[in-house]
Write a structure and sequence with these properties.
It is found in: Cytoplasm. With 186 residues, the chain is an alpha/beta fold. Helix content is 35%, strand content 27%. It has one domain: Maf protein. Helix 3 packs across helix 4 (131-141). It is globular and about 50 Å long. Bound molecules: thymidine-5'-triphosphate. Thymidine-5'-triphosphate (TTP) is lined by residues 11-13, 15-16, 69-71, 73, 82, 103, 145-148, 150-153, 171-173.
């Protein structure tokens, strides 16, 4: 329905590319290097939006609509980004075991001089996991490109996630329903 919109997806995330395709949009992918650090004292939602905006600022104003996004996991006031190594992935998954956490994805849309950002939040509940399960998962699924060290769309999501409150696609990296509404308003 919005196939006529010329869109640039500024993301290397294969999940974001897949989700935009599933929304039946026409887009091409363009990548720029962006510093993903953020100022202290920001709330989780503000961090996700801040980084999405930083990613968007790397683009010059043009005729096409640019979409950027950033996903983070928050648990008990702590922010979990992407793990740097096996030890960090283990530590994150241990923290998330048997607990609930929140996933925030910030999205920025740019069209010429116009810029708009929004976010979505999903609560995710994990059952308790064993150290063996954590090691099996890290070894076989290598979740180093994923915030919080897991993918809801892979083995973890299908064996550990008990339930979620909110958008599933938001956890995958792009809150498609909110994004679609924002595109309709453009
Ligand atoms: C929690 C969770 C995150 N993720 C992914 C979504 C994002 O791709 C990634 C978080 O990293 P991001 O920094 O948001 O994105 P990225 O570096 O992969 O891509 P880019 O900056 O180019 O847009 O974690 C899942 O795939 N499944 C999940 O369940």
């Amino acid at each position: 329905m919005l196939k006529h919109l010329p869109i640039i997806l500024a993301s290397k995330s294969p999940r974001r590319q897949e989700l935009l395709s599933l929304m039946d949009l026409n887009f091409r992918v363009e990548l720029k290097d962006v510093d993903e650090s953020y100022p202290g004292n920001l709330e989780p939602a503000e961090i996700a939006v801040y980084i999405a905006e930083q990613k968007a600022k790397a683009f010059e104003a043009a005729g096409e609509i640019v979409i950027t996004a950033d996903t983070i996991v928050a648990i008990n006031g702590e922010i979990l980004g992407k793990p740097k190594d096996v030890a960090q992935a283990r530590e994150m998954l241990r923290k998330l075991s048997g607990e609930k956490h929140e996933v925030f994805t910030g999205v920025t849309l740019v069209k010429g001089e116009y810029i708009e950002s929004f976010f979505d939040r999903t609560t995710v509940y994990f059952r308790e996991v064993t150290a063996d399960e954590i090691d099996f998962y890290i070894e076989n699924y290598k979740p180093f490109d994923k915030a919080g060290s897991y993918g809801i769309q892979d083995w973890w999501g299908n064996t550990v996630v008990q339930r979620i409150e909110g958008s599933y696609t938001n956890v995958m990296g792009l809150p498609t329903e909110k994004l679609y509404q924002a595109l309709l308003r453009l």
